[in-house]
Amino acid sequence: MEHVIELINVSKTFKGFSVHNMNLEVKQGYVTGFIGANGAGKSTTIKMIMNLLRPDAGEIRIFGLDYKTHEKAIKERIGFVYDGNVFFEGLNLKDIKRIVGPAYKRWDDTLFKRYVEQFELPLGKAIKTFSKGMQMKASLAIALSHHAELIIMDEPTAGLDPIFRQELLDLLQELMLDGNRTIFFSTHITTDLDRIADYIALIQKGKLVFNQTIHDVAENYALVKGTTDLLDKDTERAFVHIHRAPTGFVALTDNVKEVEHIFGGAVVTERASLEDIMYYMKGRESYV
């Protein structure tokens, strides 16, 4: 099985917004960062992957299986980590273990105890007393304690302090060492992905813009700076979006080799960060 998640021509329409004709593949054993601005469709896509929303059209397969006939088997193998509390606030971790544990065939009490201790989580305190970071740790402890093969994380670092964000990223790197897990990590904080992501999938206004290795993104995308006299209908085709100013232009390209061929040494080329790519892709909406 090469792909843990497969979305094939998936669409979902709401009033004023839609995920349109999504084709997404998430490779087994890797970390895929799912990026996009707030409202781009990340959470809608994740809800469809989790079978919390049904697509209007298309097919979703998880571990090569479909939800219609294999929902329980699929969800046995998925751990979901949300950016806030998904449990009844009056419960403590002992209560949650007692309720959640029997639902999973591979629940491991010893592993749960280990992660609770590692994350320094109080077993007897109500979840409502937990900080946002502690709630996220609790979700992660539960996901890991039933040996989840696919961990889906929806904005897990949003609102966390920088120190805890680094601790989380270190932990995720450790989890990937054995090669048995796949992580699908949705975020608009793109710097979190520089250290841990193997693949980057960018969604914009409900459409998948690209799904590439982080190496290919770094190789293909760049910021290009030059004087506006270099721009015409022929040269502008090398760019995804162009920002013009009196002093010159800054543009995003997804084809560095073409820029080098067209402009030679007449422009300055710089590496585009994921944040740069998101920003200029958004700017393209008013450009095309």
TrEMBL record:
Swiss-Prot/TrEMBL keywords: ATP-binding, Nucleotide-binding, Transport
InterPro entries: AAA+_ATPase (IPR003593), ABC_transporter-like_ATP-bd (IPR003439), ABC_transporter-like_CS (IPR017871), ABC_Transporter_VariousFunc (IPR051782), P-loop_NTPase (IPR027417)
The keyword Ribonucleoprotein belongs to this UniProt entry's keyword annotation: no
PROSITE patterns named in the record: ABC_TRANSPORTER_1, ABC_TRANSPORTER_2
Domain of life: Bacteria
Signal peptide: none
GO molecular function: ATP binding
Alphabetical list of Gene3D superfamilies matching this protein: P-loop containing nucleotide triphosphate hydrolases
Residue ranges occupied by any ABC transporter domain in the UniProt entry: 5-230
Official protein name in the record: ATP-binding cassette domain-containing protein
